Amino acid sequence: MNSDERRIEILKIINESGKPVTGKALAEKFGVTRQIIVKDIGIIKAAGNVILSTAKGYICENKKNEHPTREITVCHNSDDIENEMNIVVDMGGKILSTSVNHPVYGSVGEALNIKSRRDIKMFLNKTSETGCMPLLELTKGIHTHLISADDEETLDEICAELKNAGYLISTK
Fold first, then answer.
1. Which of 1, 54, 61 is nearest to 31 (CA)?
2. SS3 label, residue 122
3. Is 97:110 a contact under the CB 8 Å cutoff?
4. By the 8 A CB rule, do 102 and 108 touch?
5. pLDDT at 62
6. CATH topology of domain 67-171
7. Angle at 125 between CA 127 and CA 74, to 5 degrees
8. Domain boundaries, the chain
9. Residue 103, pLDDT score
10. SS3 of 127, please?
């Protein structure tokens, strides 16, 4: 099997799976390294496929069922992370990713896929357990999220609430 055939199969496996698929499982299935799978996923994404990298593995979001998204730029300190995320999920939103624009490294970010308070607690616990500082610490609190919701009206309401809380800087 060549690399193009492998990528087609990887996309099929992720798309048809009802749960996240780990890079390790894909590497074992195809007899390649996990680094090759990461490269393959990058190429699959570059081709326009929506694949999210989560702590539990890769998931594919079907574009036909995709909800509207909005990129928001916010600013707050680490103590406000939980409150900011609670605002988004309590109002029916989902935090797909977070990123910062680092002056040396450029854009640095990660898929989050946070849709509930439970997900927020897991994220905060993992941050605490590992001792890793949140990305916003690299940019004096300024960071970007890609959020989604069922409709544009809900996205507008989330942004209004984030603005009321003093977090929202801008939206795209």
1. 1
2. helix
3. yes
4. yes
5. 57
6. Histidine-containing Protein; Chain: A; (3.30.1340)
7. 55
8. 3-63, 67-171
9. 83
10. helix
Q: What is the pLDDT of residues 138-157, one digit of tens each?
A: 888 999 998 999 999 999 99
As given in the structure block, the two tokens for residue 146 are 């890609």
| Distance (Å, whole) CA 9 – CA 71 | 31
Looking at the predicted structure, is the pLDDT value of residue 46 above 80?
A: no
Tell me the three state secondary structure of residue 29.
helix
What distance in Å separates the CA atoms of residue 14 and residue 20, rounded to the nearest whole number? 7
Quick count: other Cβ atoms within 10 Å of Cβ 136?
21
* Amino acid in position 64: K
The answer to whether residue 47 scores a pLDDT higher than 80 is no
pLDDT at 86 over 60: yes
**Rounded to whole angstroms, how far apart are CA atoms 11 and 41?**
8
User: So what's the pLDDT on residue 8?
Assistant: 86
Average pLDDT of span 15-36: 92
Q: Which amino acid is at 142?
A: I
Kindly report the CATH number that applies to the domain delimited by 3-63: 1.10.10.10
